[in-house]
Structure formats: structure tokens, C-alpha cells
């Protein structure tokens, strides 16, 4: 690796740590400050933070790799993601921002679920927290796999060393500054990703005479646009589009809506966030498409399709620019890992320790426990990530489905279903999570295949969870007066500010 690349990477690490130190001095004096930024995050930071924490290493590695391997059918995933993110801003963000404050000023998603049905409803809080810690530990490992692959492929550094370097920097600024540090670093990382995903495909495209030549070389390995979009079965199309359903249940994304400073700022955040997302997704798909064409035209060997962005950064750019592009991958990886670590830590601290522990911990102790939680989840995720043959997109898809099915229907019902009950909520979480796990791991088909080979597990998981919630709520007793009151107050406040 060239010295210029190390300089770029080193500067990036220093900036992230400096932001962590700044946030440490301004936001960590309280639990709300450490875990939610005091609900004072600007719409600009909210938008890019939500986008960057969502579009992790799979945006610069997994999605281009999918386009590189299978071709234009990956566009269906992109459409599903864009539609889901837009629906999340329109349907979830305004009411969740108001409701989490009205319902006991909840700072975590499990706490909101509990407050939605009365503050003594510990069962749902513990259930939700366990699901969050379990799936986020797996989800975090996907980011660490991406970090290890990056250091091994680009820097010629041992995979395990790269994994722990990535982990060390992320844990450092997350420990220091909490939510504010994570949000501010996400903003910077989102800007870096935006530039990188425009620059790489545009520069790579200059090696061709036009779109026709790119298409000609690309279709030597992948189906044409018409064949790629038309050859999929209905179930395959549904599976790809269903990625969008996951947005309603992703704690590390919707917590941004809880932290934005005002419901009035959500419109601006939506416009910024969706514009950023559209450009970056198109850039990721273009990187994969131009990548397969470039490889076929110039006879380059690519051992791992998920490293095509890295290959371009090394062969097309000056080492100083190459270092910036590699920093963009680190930015994508770290933005998501830090968000996941913080949400996992908040669940361990606020939803497990506070509920199951003896006595009420003081503010200082709660923040300290939160930091210990960050380290604990990080270490377990690192152990899971030691297998460098893991597919980034595969790990992300499993965790994404788990959250989407377990929490997505419940979040929507909490915000829109007046007669939702505590038992129905718990049943929805458990049924969604179990369905996803069964779909992924039970070898019930021929040759030991699982049901996920037929349809993406979020589809049956989301359906089962939704049906379960409605059936149990219909059979259960009416919700409490407190829950009805908070629901009505939320509707009033949202309508007032709309």
C-alpha cells in the first residue's frame, strides 16, 4: 500500500476520533444525551445519519458485488429499498417522534413499546431487547467482515488484524461521544460515501466509448436488462422488493426519528435523505455494472465480487485519491457498526439492566454501563466475524429480515392501531422472529435446502407477525386507559404540526 493511502486513512481515523472527543464534551452527561443526543439533532444530520447507518459496507461492497454477479435483477432490491425508506419517513417518522416523547419520553425502542402499554410492562421490553441484542450482534459482524476484507484486499493486511483495527476505531468514538458522536460521524461518513459513489463509476465509465460498449461487455457475463428483469419468478421479485418492508423495524434507523429536534424538521430530513439515498444506490449499481464490463474488457481477475469497488479505487486513481475512496468504504462500515453498537448497548443498559437489576442506577452509572455494553457486543460480534468467507450481503439480509419481521408490524400497529394490546405486541415480536429463523435454518426442502431459497424470509415473517398481532388483539381484553390516552394525544399533536 502506498504511503499516500495510509495518510488518507490516518486522517480519516483522526477526524472520527476528534468528533468523538467533541461529542464527549457536549452530550454524555445524561442517559438521554448519551443514547439519543438529547432529542436535538438537526434534520441534515438526521438524514445523512439515517442513510449512512442504513447503507453500510454492503452499499459499497455487497450491492456492487450483487450487480457484478447476477446483473440487473439487483435493481428490484434497489426499488424496494427506496420505496421502504420513503414510506418510513412518511408513515413512521412523524408519529414516532411525538409518541416516544409523549409515552414517558422513551429513549429506546423497547422502552417505547413498554410505555405504549403502561410503564410496568417489562415483558415486552425484555423480549424486544433480547431480539435487538441477538440480531444486532450478527448484523455488526457483517460490518466487521467488510472491514477485514477491506484491509486484506486493499492494504495487504491480515484479515483478522483489519477486523480488529476497524472495531477499535469504531468502539473508541462510540464509547466517547455516544449518540451525538455516532450521528456527527455518520454525517461526515455520508458525505464521503456520496462523493465516492459518484466518482468511481463515472471515472470507470471513461474507459468505454459509451453505454452500448459497457452493456456489450457486461452482458458477456450477465443477462441483458430485459432478460434480467423479466426472467425472475414472481416470488423472486417479491423477495427483492420486500427489502423495503425491513425499514419499519430497524432500530438503528428509526431511532434517528426519535432524536430529531422537532417534528417540523422531518420534511427537510426526508428530502435530504431520499436524495442522498437515490444517488448512492444508483452509484452502487453502476459500480457493479461498469465493474463487470471493465473486467471483461481488460481481462482483470477479481476473486471476490464484493471487492470490485476496492479494485477500481486501486487501478483508476492516484494513491491519495485511492486512500480517500478506501476511507469511504471504512465510512460506510463504521457508520453502521457504531449505530448498531449504540442501540445494542442502550438495550442492554436501559431495557435489561435497568429492568432486571436491583435498584435504579444513577445517571453516571447508567452511562458507564452503556459503554461496557458497547464493548461486550463488539467483542462477541468480532468472534462471529472471524470467518472471512462469510458473505456480507447474506449476513445483512438475515439480520434485516429478523428486525423487519419482529418489529416492523409492531411499530406500525403501535402508531396506527388504537386497540393494540400488550399480549398482541409480544406475540407479534416472537412470531415474526421465530418465522424468520425457521425460514433461514430449517432444512425442510429437498437436498437439505431451507425455505429462504424460495422466498426471502422477511415476507413470511412480516405476514405471520401482522396476522398474529391482529388475531391476539381481537381476542384480548381492551387496552389500558393510559395507552388510549397517549394514543389520542399523539394523534392530536401530529395533526397539529402536520
Automatic annotation (TrEMBL):
Principal localisation: membrane
Cellular compartments annotated: Cell inner membrane; Cell membrane
Bilayer disposition of the protein: Multi-pass membrane protein
PANTHER family the record matches: OSMOREGULATED PROLINE TRANSPORTER OPUE, SODIUM/PROLINE SYMPORTER-RELATED
Membrane-crossing segments per the record: 6-24, 75-92, 126-147, 159-180, 187-208, 228-248, 269-295, 315-337, 368-386, 392-412, 424-442, 454-475
Matches recorded under PROSITE patterns: NA_SOLUT_SYMP_3
Entry-linked InterPro entries: Na/Glc_symporter_sf, Na/Pro_symporter, Na/solute_symporter, Sodium:Solute_Symporter
Pfam families (alphabetical): SSF
Catalyzed chemical reaction(s): L-proline(in) + Na(+)(in) = L-proline(out) + Na(+)(out)
Task of the protein: Catalyzes the sodium-dependent uptake of extracellular L-proline.
Protein name as annotated: Sodium/proline symporter
Amino acid at each position: 500500500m502506498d504511503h499516500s493511502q495510509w495518510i488518507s486513512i490516518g486522517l480519516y481515523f483522526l477526524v472520527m476520533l476528534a468528533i468523538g472527543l467533541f461529542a464527549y464534551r457536549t452530550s454524555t452527561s445524561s442517559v438521554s444525551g448519551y443514547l439519543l443526543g438529547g432529542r436535538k439533532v438537526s434534520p441534515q444530520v438526521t438524514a445523512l445519519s439515517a442513510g449512512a447507518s442504513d447503507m453500510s459496507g454492503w452499499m459499497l461492497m455487497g450491492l456492487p458485488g450483487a450487480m457484478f454477479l447476477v446483473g440487473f435483477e439487483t435493481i428490484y432490491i434497489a426499488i424496494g429499498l427506496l420505496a421502504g425508506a420513503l414510506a418510513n419517513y412518511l408513515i413512521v417518522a412523524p408519529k414516532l417522534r411525538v409518541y416516544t416523547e409523549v409515552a414517558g419520553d422513551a429513549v429506546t425502542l423497547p422502552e417505547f413499546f413498554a410505555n405504549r402499554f403502561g410503564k410496568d410492562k417489562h415483558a415486552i421490553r425484555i423480549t424486544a431487547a433480547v431480539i435487538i441484542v441477538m440480531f444486532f450482534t450478527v448484523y455488526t459482524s457483517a460490518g466487521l467482515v467488510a472491514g477485514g476484507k477491506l484491509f486484506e484486499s486493499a492494504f495487504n493486511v491480515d484479515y483478522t488484524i483489519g477486523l480488529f483495527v476497524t472495531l477499535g476505531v469504531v468502539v473508541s468514538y462510540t464509547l466517547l461521544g455516544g449518540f451525538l458522536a455516532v450521528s456527527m460521524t455518520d454525517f461526515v461518513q455520508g458525505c464521503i460515501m456520496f462523493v465516492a459513489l459518484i466518482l468511481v463509476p463515472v471515472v470507470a465509465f471513461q474507459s468505454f466509448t459509451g453505454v452500448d460498449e459497457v452493456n456489450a461487455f457486461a452482458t458477456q457475463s450477465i443477462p441483458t436488462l430485459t432478460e434480467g428483469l423479466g426472467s425472475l419468478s414472481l416470488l423472486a421479485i417479491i423477495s427483492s422488493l420486500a427489502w423495503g418492508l425491513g425499514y419499519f423495524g430497524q432500530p438503528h434507523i428509526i431511532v434517528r426519528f426519535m432524536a430529531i429536534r422537532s417534528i417540523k424538521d422531518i420534511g427537510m430530513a426526508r428530502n435530504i435523505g431520499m436524495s442522498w439515498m437515490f444517488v448512492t444506490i444508483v452509484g452502487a449499481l453502476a459500480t457493479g455494472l461498469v465493474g463487470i464490463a471493465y473486467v471483461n474488457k481488460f481481462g482483470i481477475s477479481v476473486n471476490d465480487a464484493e471487492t470490485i469497488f476496492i479494485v477500481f479505487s486501486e487501478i483508476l486513481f492516484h494513491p491519495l485519491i485511492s486512500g480517500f475512496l478506501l476511507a469511504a468504504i471504512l465510512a460506510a462500515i463504521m457508520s453502521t457498526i457504531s449505530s448498531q453498537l449504540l442501540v445494542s448497548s442502550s438495550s442492554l443498559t436501559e431495557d435489561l439492566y435497568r429492568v432486571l437489576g436491583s435498584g435504579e442506577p444513577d445517571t453516571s452509572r447508567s452511562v458507564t454501563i452503556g459503554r461496557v455494553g458497547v464493548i461486550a457486543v463488539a467483542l462477541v460480534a468480532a468472534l462471529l466475524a472471524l470467518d472471512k468467507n462469510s458473505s456480507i450481503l447474506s449476513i445483512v439480509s438475515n439480520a434485516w429480515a429478523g428486525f423487519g419481521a419482529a418489529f416492523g408490524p409492531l411499530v406500525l400497529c403501535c402508531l396506527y392501531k388504537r386497540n393494540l394490546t400488550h399480549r398482541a405486541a409480544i406475540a407479534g415480536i416472537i412470531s415474526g422472529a421465530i418465522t424468520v429463523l425457521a425460514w433461514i435454518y430449517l432444512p425442510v426442502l429437498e437436498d437439505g435446502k431451507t425455505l429462504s431459497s424460495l422466498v426471502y424470509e422477511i415476507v413470511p415473517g412480516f405476514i405471520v407477525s401482522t396476522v398474529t398481532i391482529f388475531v391476539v388483539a381481537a381476542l384480548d381484553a381492551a387496552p389500558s386507559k393510559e395507552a388510549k390516552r397517549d394514543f389520542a394525544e399523539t394523534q392530536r399533536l401530529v395533526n397539529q404540526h402536520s
